[in-house]
Design brief:
The protein is an alpha/beta fold. The protein folds into three domains: 165 residues, P-loop containing nucleotide triphosphate hydrolases (Rossmann fold, 3-Layer(aba) Sandwich), CATH 3.40.50; 217 residues, Rossmann fold (3-Layer(aba) Sandwich), CATH 3.40.50; 88 residues, no CATH class. It contains 16 helices and 21 strands. Strands 3-4-2-5-6-1-9 form a seven-stranded parallel β-sheet. α10 links the parallel β14 and β15. α1 packs across α2, α4 crosses α5 and α8 crosses α9. It is elongated and about 90 Å long. It starts with 7 loop residues before the first helix and ends with a helix.
Length: 508
């Protein structure tokens, strides 16, 4: 074997795996985040098994994952065969990369000595995987997953004489990988939180609760919401390599059409594309010939393009697994890439927290109260969007790290006659160029939305800052609470002035 050099945490994880197996555990789940090198760790285990004369099966649940594993085994110099429908070859090899569908139909050789399962969080929700483990219940199994908390991963089965997975080994956390420089951190903006009233919840194949796909698409696939996606991308991420996750195929196609209408090179990808078509689109995106690549769920697992800097989350989800997997697509480092950017038009980050936070690392036993407690644990971060720029702030952060806006604290607010919320001028932020532009952009959007005359925004700006808006760009931004409260105060002040004038006129 050549070309594999392990990091310290990878060596430590392999040591823990071997210790768990030596203690009698037959099925061990290895948690290691996307981009941490799970495959490299698996290959070291494969070489160790080969040295002991054992036959190894590497099992995946998707055709692309089978091809990917084969390519990487070739690069590592590990001879292998493939057990996958019409692509099967070299079935007598000591290492076989297998499709779980084909294994389900044909079975595995009787002399298999180690089974490695890629994306192992799919095991609990798959009858095919469970039957595989039932049949080979004495064979050591190592599962690889970046999301090991899928429902039922530790559920007891009589056929296994124990839980599905008996032990969980943690290699490293997402936060540790960011601190070590092996992943990039992620900034989050939440420009929209769609109205999902009436969208029912149903249990997915994997056992997690998530939105009904048909009802979800009806709620989010609307021209105004699609246009909002493009507008905010142009403001926050224009020109950057972007992957977009939509609610379904039609929604993805509508998003792509809107990007193209605005002159952005964009493409849609789904399972209807042939393997060659898919490869062509992905290669074009990797080369930078496509700027925005949209899909529904096809690229959530098994696809890596480190140059991807931005993710648009246009499909709301209740699934922590799906959410973490999708965000993982943009966390890999690349030359010139300092941070990733998530534009959340789904409200997901407000429901599930930051995908880079520590995850609930325990094997779920399938009982109803377990997942509820995990959700409660995740709520501890309580992220909140900045009222001014929609940057999502961590819990406990008052001033926005992106635009500097600090929401008015209770002690800074004076309630006056007419329920006017007045912000003390002493606490007002400095009039920096960025702040002036942002306030002007907010006034422009209010002007257009209300149908006011073109000069209204400039006049309001002059009232706010005492100068005219010279050399500022005519770009819109969603109005903040601060600006809306200030406009309200202007209206009340004007109304009171009118009333006073009428009284004085009557007295005269």
């Amino acid at each position: 074997m050549t070309g594999i050099r392990l990091r310290a945490y990878q060596e430590g994880a392999i040591g823990k795996l071997r210790s768990a197996l030596a203690r009698g555990a037959r099925r061990v789940l290895l948690y290691s985040p996307t981009g941490s090198g799970k495959t490299e760790m698996a290959f070291v285990m494969i070489v160790g098994a080969l040295a002991k004369g054992r036959k190894v099966m590497f099992v995946a649940n998707r055709k692309e994952l089978v091809r990917q594993a084969s390519r990487r085994l070739d690069a590592a110099g590990i001879a292998h065969g493939i057990l996958q429908a019409e692509n099967s070859r070299s079935l007598d090899a000591k290492v076989l990369v297998c499709s779980v569908d084909t294994v389900h139909r044909r079975g595995l050789p009787d002399d298999v000595g180690l089974i490695i399962i890629d994306e192992a969080h799919a095991v609990a929700g798959s009858v095919k995987y469970r039957e595989l483990l039932f049949k080979y219940n004495l064979v050591p199994v190592v599962g690889l997953s970046a999301t090991p908390f899928a429902p039922g991963m530790g559920k007891h089965y009589d056929e296994l004489r124990g839980p599905l997975f008996e032990a969980l080994v943690e290699a490293v956390t997402i936060r540790e990988l960011i601190d070590l420089g092996f992943l990039v951190d992620c900034d989050v903006f939440a420009p929209a939180d769609p109205d999902l009233a009436g969208v029912k919840t149903q249990r997915s194949i994997g056992g997690e609760l998530d939105y009904n796909e048909t009802q979800l698409a009806e709620a989010v696939d609307k021209p105004a919401l699609v246009g909002d996606i493009v507008q905010h991308w142009q403001r926050l991420a224009a020109g950057k390599q972007t992957v977009c996750f939509a609610s379904n195929i039609a929604h993805s196609q509508h998003i792509v059409a809107e990007f193209i209408r605005h002159g952005v090179k964009a493409a849609h990808l789904d399972y209807h594309h042939t393997d060659d078509e898919r490869a062509e689109i992905l290669d074009a995106f990797a080369r930078g010939e496509i700027t925005v690549l949209s899909n529904s769920a096809l690229l959530a697992e098994g696809w890596d393009c480190p140059s991807t800097e931005v993710m648009i989350l246009a499909r709301p989800t209740k699934s922590l697994i799906r959410y973490v997997q999708m965000v993982g697509r943009v966390l890999r480092p690349a030359r010139g890439k300092e941070r990733a950017l998530l534009l959340d038009h789904s409200g997901t980050v407000l429901r599930l927290g930051f995908a880079t936070d520590d995850l609930p690392l325990e094997l779920d036993d399938g009982k109803a109260n377990t997942s509820a407690s995990k959700k409660q644990d995740r709520k501890a971060s309580e992220p909140k969007p900045c009222p001014s720029c929609k940057y999502v702030r961590p819990a406990g952060v008052h001033a926005c790290p992106s635009c500097g806006f600090a929401p008015t604290r209770q002690s800074d607010v004076e309630v006056t006659e007419g329920d006017l919320v007045k912000i003390d001028r002493k606490t007002k932020k400095p009039a920096t160029p960025d702040r002036k532009q942002h306030v002007y952009s907010q006034l422009l959007q209010v002007c257009r939305a209300k149908g006011y005359r073109p000069g209204w925004a400039a006049n309001q700006y002059r009232e706010f800052f005492g100068v005219w808006p010279r050399s500022l760009r005519d770009v819109e931004a969603a109005p903040s609470t601060e600006v809306l409260n200030w406009l309200k105060s202007q209206r009340i002040r004007f109304a009171k002035g009118q009333q006073k004038g009428e009284v004085q006129h009557g007295q005269a």
